[in-house]
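=== Structure Prediction Worksheet ===
Name of assembly: unnamed complex
Input type: mixed (protein and possibly other molecules)
Chain count: two
Listed entries:
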Amino acid sequence: MVHADASNFVIGVTKDQAYEQVLMQAEGLFDGQRNWVCNLSNAASLLWHAYKSLPSPSNQVNWAGFYTLNPLSPSPQLILGPFQGKVACQTIAFSRGVCGVAAATQTTQLVRDVDAFPGHIACDGDSRSEIVVPIVVSQEGTGEKKLVAIIDIDCAVLDGFDEVDRVYLEKLGGLIGRSCDWWLWSSGDRLDC
Amino acid sequence: MVHADASNFVIGVTKDQAYEQVLMQAEGLFDGQRNWVCNLSNAASLLWHAYKSLPSPSNQVNWAGFYTLNPLSPSPQLILGPFQGKVACQTIAFSRGVCGVAAATQTTQLVRDVDAFPGHIACDGDSRSEIVVPIVVSQEGTGEKKLVAIIDIDCAVLDGFDEVDRVYLEKLGGLIGRSCDWWLWSSGDRLDC
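=== Predicted Assembly ===
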């Protein structure tokens, strides 16, 4: 199978079925590949094409992707990762907007109306609803859960997401968290090629 | 201006004008931001939306994104970076396919018919033509040019690209090369968060 076929979803499937396919394809793509940039790039593509195969409101998703922890920032900050959709804000402080709150609290934010969310950051004025799911990894030894990234999905209509999205995106977040080596860059690690 | 507006291209512009907007927007987005994952993610979005605003064949582009050097590979290898489009091959050996040849030779590959290109890798059976532009950086001191990434654009029709694409994508490759810190991960740099 050529890789692009993983993005082909049958029209008429339910949201549960589409997410099940995303999880199955993601698991296959991550098998033997733990590079987080590579895996998040393919995961964003899977999600985008899954939503586009579904009826409204899911097919009104207008941004699907990731922000990761920015280890170069002196204060806790997210930085833009791989995504599908229009150009997005580069950095987001923890606690700022929907993404920042999800990162700071390590809890999923399911926002039916972004304009009603205090401090919402309007990267795209078309976005009306949003779901953000934290990706956390347990530290060896202590078991303490540390945030490494978030899944961020925007929708151009109100009430774009429900509990089905929450359940499956949290499953995907768990899979991504344990399937990648979270080697982020540091100032001392400039590529010496 | 919200960030998403950078992806909005006026219908009816020429290809030159669309690429000029890509370059201008990219320069603005990279100003003060040298994180390569962040910048490549936004650059893929700019390119994708530019192509979709143009007449055929440009609007038939079905993949736009990046592969980077994989420092973890013992042999020279590209690994998937941020992109827009369907799921893609994770790794490509130097010299293999259009991307591999561009990487190994550090020269743009403008391929009017991918099926006629020896060793073409069919990540997506829909792709008919392709352009791949190397992104190189000069090493301090020696000035030796080292490959850090490639721009890869696929099109679903034959003859999707011409000299205009080559000229502007090489300009974009130069801008990206000097605008990012190419801090790639290494096995000794696991995030200790």
